[in-house]
Amino acid sequence: MKICLYAHDWNYIDNYEPVTKILESQNINFDILVLKKARHQSFLYFSRKYKKKYGAKFITIYDIKFGKEIISLSKLPVIGLPAEVSLGTSLLKYFLVKKKYTHIVVSDDRIIEACILIKAANEARIKNVVLYPVEGLQIVKSLMLTKIQAQKSMPESKKRRVASSISRVIYPKNSAICEGKPFYFFPPNEVLRLGGMEIFPKNPWVRGANKLTKIAANSMMQARENYVHGVNANKIFITGFPPHDKLLDLIKNREQNKARIKSALHLDPNKKIFLIAGTNYSDDFDPPRFSEIDKDISRVISILSYKIGPSFDFIFKIHPRVDIAGQENIFSDQVKEKIKFVKDEFSIYELVTISDAILNFISASMDASLITDAPIFCYKIPGRMIFEQEIARYKSITPLYNIVDLERNLSILGKIPAFDEILRKEDRKNFGIFDGRNAERFVSLL
User: Fold this and answer.
1) Taking 60 as the threshold, does the pLDDT of residue 71 lie above it?
2) CA–CA separation, 428 and 87 (whole Å)
3) 189: how many CB neighbours lie within 10 A of its CB?
4) For the whole model, what pTM was predicted?
5) Span of the secretion signal (predicted)?
6) Are residues 262 and 379 in the same domain?
7) Are residues 328 and 397 in the same domain?
8) Kind of pairing between the strands at 312-317 and 2-6
9) Is the domain of 42 the same as that of 157?
10) Which of 279, 274, 255 has its CA nearest to residue 358?
11) Distance between CA atoms of residues 197 and 351, nearest Å
12) pLDDT score, position 194
């Protein structure tokens, strides 16, 4: 057995770590493949980081002969993207065959580079092409609303309307209708150029709808979502999300970890911890709205510190893709004095498992938070379309639709139970597996 672990983004390399540890312990050969283009300075940082950690097992597109030349073809007008996809598929097919991989594990099956790899794997007749689970629940309707929200401000033009109309004929599943207007998963111009190359998944809105052998789901709820939207039930296997295995150990050592982190952050040993899990709203909102959102989040934190400050210390875990200075600058000096900002010093899992109350703005870490007995609140950022769809399925997480909701719930925090223990157990059952054996199950699936 020889396995290729494809990571479509840097954080997914870390998501593979529980699995790679088992593979190493069983002397199973594996490589980690990254096909990202070096568009940002972070590429050099991360490529060096993982090359140091994994050595020759870490492979980027630039390590593959002719890889650099082929991915640069997309810069050419009109023919560039089709040329990159066609030659890229051939290159990866040759690479996979030469490496003699028996299994390809992919962290995504919908972005273009993932589609190229999956097509290459199928052409190379690799019999095991497996989709790795993600942390958060992937809901089709939520993804559609996210795309709709992101595309609403795009300027209309005759050229775009014509391209959109033709693309809907070529790839009908690519579009969604909202208020009588079509929106798209893949840009229509990409569909026009790649529509005849059989590269796109059957339904791009559904995770697992590409040409895969097996689909590992993080939870019962995710398996159900995939099945409802047409994914073959015989291909879906509920393994849990392997990085969640760490949560069990963290919970078992909660008090020691809490004391350690409090000491490191110079927090009051007698106060409870209120965790704010930051978000990267640039994914879902246009830049003109950032100022409004910054003000709202700043107001939320101000109310928290005013209402429950005497009982709680506040930790703000900054989202991995958000700059720490940019995050801190949205708050007044008075508020900043009451908050400990954490970037890389401690993981979100470490902080979740020591917290006595948690506030987030819709994030994958909500599922990890379910392992705790802490009250969990989820605040709606103004204008966020997907909030209701995301939060509706959780029974033990309290939605906060506005500042009034926030103030009302803070006034009763600690006085009455913030959630029903039975409902928390039900959420755990629906949104993950917390027995510490997720990585083991995934490796067995291979």
Assistant:
1) yes
2) 45
3) 17
4) 0.89
5) none
6) yes
7) yes
8) unpaired
9) no
10) 274
11) 46
12) 92
